[in-house]
Hints:
Layout: E1 3-9, E2 12-18, E3 27-33, E4 36-48, E5 57-63, H1 84-97, E6 107-117, H2 124-138, E7 148-155, E8 158-161, H3 165-170, E9 173-179, E10 184-191, H4 196-224, H5 238-255, H6 261-279, H7 287-307, E11 324-328, E12 336-342, E13 345-354, E14 360-362, E15 369-371, E16 373-378, H8 395-408, E17 421-430, H9 435-449
Helix pairs in contact: 1-2, 1-8, 2-4, 5-6, 5-7, 6-7, 8-9
Amino acid sequence: MNRTFSMQLAGRPLTIETGKIAQLANGAALVRYGDTVILSTATASSKPREGIDFFPLSVDYEERLYAVGKIPGGFIKREGKPSEKAILTSRVIDRPIRPLFPKDLRNDVAVVNTVMSVDQDNSPEIAAMIGASIALSISDIPFNGPIGGVILGLIGEEVIINPNAEQREKSGMYVTLAGTRDKITMIEAGANEIPDEKMMEAIKKGHEVIKQIVGFIDGIVKEIGKPKFVYESAEVPSDIFNAVKEFAYSRMREAVLAVDKQVRDENISKLSEDTKQHLAETFPEMESKIAEALYKLEKKVVREYILVEGKRVDGRSLDEIRALSAEVGLLPRTHGSALFQRGQTQVITVATLGALGDVQMLDGVDLEEEKRYMHHYNFPGYSVGEAKTSRGPGRREIGHGALAERALEPVIPSQDDFPYTIRLVSEVTMSNGSTSQGSVCGSTLALMDAGVPIKSPVAGIS
């Protein structure tokens, strides 16, 4: 049955239509925010996927250029692979909803948000996030939501909820905030050196609006929500976990204590083989469950070291940073280069300067714009000791590249002061900890090595 629900969000109408479009999906909602229209759907497989130890969730944000009255360029004249903006938006929606599914669910779940009409004053990103939350909440898919989301802007001292296009141009920050009624579950932020107090004020104000959105969705669920289906739990049986714990607990406490990542991995690998052999007769054909139980035990031990003994597995205290080192000018024919290392995390960042004709043209459902500063991030398999073929940047690499790009954007000199296009590339050569943090620090060093007059150095920490 077709139903319509409405509320006012930041002074503009938010309307939800259900029961008319995409009726074969487990849950679907057509979201109208101003003249922005998003079709959000959620579907799930009827049976769990075999042989996996993770929750197979996919979240897609699909831009259609007809949404802004455009025909795609090129010879093919249809949309191809997702744009960088679409990938980043998919990740922003994924992060707040993923923790709200049952940890033992292994059924495939696909959330698809199709951008069908775009009004530049009303963010399709937020409409899609709300739509995904509604589609999951009213469906029969097990989901412990709902969530709500808003965008925060700042003009002068005033925090703006869901700023329009003109306000976004003037805003000193752009923060995407998501959360439940009780907690904030995701923050994606870029800000022009905003004081901590003002950022906290904005987040608190945003959460008050999120509570209203969650209450609105709860009302929809109460009226049309389906009962959640009963799924086959992938939880490790308690008898297997208890047997693994009894055999391996004391050895696991010793195995994880290593400064060197490879030594720690070798210790845990040896313990894993010994445990599987020891329990092979007791639990035949349950090797995968034994492996999951070992991983669960490893997390338990590491957590105990942190919360009970106040130390990390490499011997550091909770507020102690790994040893830092840095080097600049290591590549002779590049414009700027730097090597930043923190413990066993190592990043080489290279800066290249070009003419203004080298700017990147962004053409999507947003307003067309030029991009004269960009940061790209590469994470090859050898950085973690894996024999893996490179297949181009994935969603994680695009997301990490955007994170460091956003961190440095406020300190990049204006085009009038520095009339060059700037490209940074961070090559992760070793990883044991936050590489995005390393790419931020390496980027600062590479820019200074290239002679770019940044307004102030930027560092990152995870």
